[in-house]
Amino acid sequence: MSLPLPNLDVTILPSTGAASIDPYFNSSLCAAQTAARAWAAGNGPGSMVQLNASNTQRGILRDQKLAGQQRRQWDITGLEAATNYTVWLSAQDATLNNVTVWPAIKFATKTADNCRLVYDVPFCPNVAYAIPIGPQVSTDNALSTINRTVSPNLSNFTQLLGTFPCGDPYFGPYSGVKDCGDCLDAYQDWLCAVAMPRCVDALDDPNIQSAAAQNSTVLTGGPMSANTDLLPYVVNRRDGRNESRQTYVDDELSPGTYGELLPCIYTCYFVSRSCPAPLVQWSCPKWGISAQRSYGAFADSGAEGIGARENGGAGSDFSRWGGPTRYIAQDAFGNAFCNAMGVDTRLSEDNAALPALDGRRAWRASVFASVALYFLLLA
Prior knowledge:
Elements (H helix, E strand, L loop, with lengths): L7 E7 L14 H12 L9 E7 L14 E7 L6 E10 L4 E4 L3 E4 L6 E7 L2 E9 L6 H24 L17 H16 L2 E3 L5 H4 L24 E4 L9 H7 L4 E4 L4 H9 L68 H8 L9 H4 L1 E5 L10
Parallel strand pairs: 3-12
Antiparallel strand pairs: 1-4, 2-3, 4-5, 4-6, 7-8, 9-11, 10-11
Helix pairs in contact: 2-3, 3-6
């Protein structure tokens, strides 16, 4: 049975400047809403902001316990580029005459206009982030171009998986916790992560601003240190050195120079752990040898790119994350470290870990910003 969505309200303000509120009042909905009304008055920047709400099953579509449920999402337009914002989500309960306020989410809009938000993509249902698209290319044409790669590959993999006796009670089971449906889901998420690169602003100096390997010379197969500086795994594309991993991005989407937030390596691991090994002979690159050219890791991963709560850069009792959380693909301040495609949440659930404090699990809601900007943005 589908439960009705709560009566949710969104309040948004710049995080700094005259329209912002003092951090002391960060948990005061009254202060936030009063400031937001003043910001939206007149003909100032706040008057241009529009919120468009819709429902989605992204993130819960595969969860049998939540079958038929919906999540609320917002597309926020009219935001200024290269600006930090704070969003509050609240719910009014008329019966009890009270209001619930969730922790504020911080995010920053992008500087360039070559990263465009896409979500509710039919062939990649877990995608909800910006992808590299030049201003002169329409979103529909860009998605059509990408689908020419995604659909045939997904169809071929589905046919391959169909040769395995998935439904046979005697020969079909190959795992006590995974089945062929999990295998297909994991492959689709991995395929979408590499076919639809997550776009961020290009870094001024990726050699010191990114934990990703910008060239193969640093990958020797020897021991690697943990990402104690908590840098994102970003590779600049179309910068004269690194082309996009998919030729159609450069040839048809024409984004120019952009940064790619690399997929978390667990998107690859999930295919190997979810699929029947004799049929799907899947392998992932080795950390320290070639992986950091194509994949990133959770911010709390150890020196081998795996594990959780193994990075000393998070501070005492992992105060950097706001508490003892694990599998950090994105923190509570909007900093994204790798493109997780939901594997962070699933790992938390599989291992009974506390979910990452990015607001998604706590709220069952997603808030997005458009105008070539997106909500869950690398700060």
